[in-house]
Amino acid sequence: MRFLKNIKQAIVVTAVPFMFTGCVDNADLVQLDNNNYTETSFWETDEDAVEGVNAVYASLLTDGTYMRSTPLLLDLKGDDTRSQSPWAAMANVGRFNTSVSDAAIYGWAFETYYQGVFRANQVLTFVPEMEMEDAALKDRVIGQAYFLRGLYFFHLVNMFKSVPLPQAPVDYSQFSFEQKTQEEGWAQVISDLQMAVDLLPNDYTSISGLDAGDVGRATKGAAYAYLGKAYLFNQDYASARTAFEQVMSMGYSLVPNYRDNFTTDNENNSESIFEVQFSRDAGGVNLGWGGAPGSDWGKTSARAITYAPRNFGWTDVQPTWQLFNEFQEELTVNGEVDPRLDATMFYNKPGGMMLYGQDFATVYAGSPADLNDLFCRKYQNSDGQFADEYDWRSGINERLMRYADVLLMYAECLNELGQTSDAYTYIQMVRDRVNLPDLATTMPGMSQAEMRDQIGHERFLEFGLEGHRFDDIRRWGWLDTRLQWLQDRDPEFNTYVDGREYFPIPQTEIDNNPGIVDQNPGY
Question: Which residue range or ranges hold the RagB/SusD domain (predicted)?
Answer without folding.
Answer: 271-523
